[in-house]
């Protein structure tokens, strides 16, 4: 290892250690996990997210979020829902759908978060949802009545996806 490589190593190590004490608060943060590529997360409201730009199944999306230091997004309040809706309406096509963490794969129509394993503490269903019990078991966001809201849909269908940054020990910010 050369001196410059060692200096980069020390810088990365110090940032990784500092990360444990300083939650990022800028508009973006770059997250890298062991053996993975870096992923840029953008702040929306009080959390950091990235949007998956390919259409994939809910199961594939769950794995890809984990690969990049996140989970499918867990929307926990009306404030978070509104901030995400405003962002999606501004930045993305209104016909795009985005997978999130909610699902009822364990107990039909008892929706829980893949990120926490716990029942959802907040939902913002669009009118008439959830429907088709036992068939539509994964949640996504779609634009209905002027805002992005929640719908249950068939998990093996393909959509874009919204990942939320998590604090895994094998992932770190800044390097
Ligand atoms: Ca539905």
UniProtKB/TrEMBL annotation:
InterPro entries attached to this UniProt entry: C-type_lectin-like, C-type_lectin-like/link_sf, CTDL_fold
Annotated Gene3D superfamilies: Mannose-Binding Protein A, subunit A (3.10.100.10)
A Pfam family of this chain: Lectin_C
Domain C-type lectin: 44-164
Entry keywords, A to Z: Signal
Domain of life: Eukaryota
Protein name: C-type lectin 37Db-like
Lineage: Eukaryota, Metazoa, Ecdysozoa, Arthropoda, Hexapoda
Gene behind the chain: LOC117574087
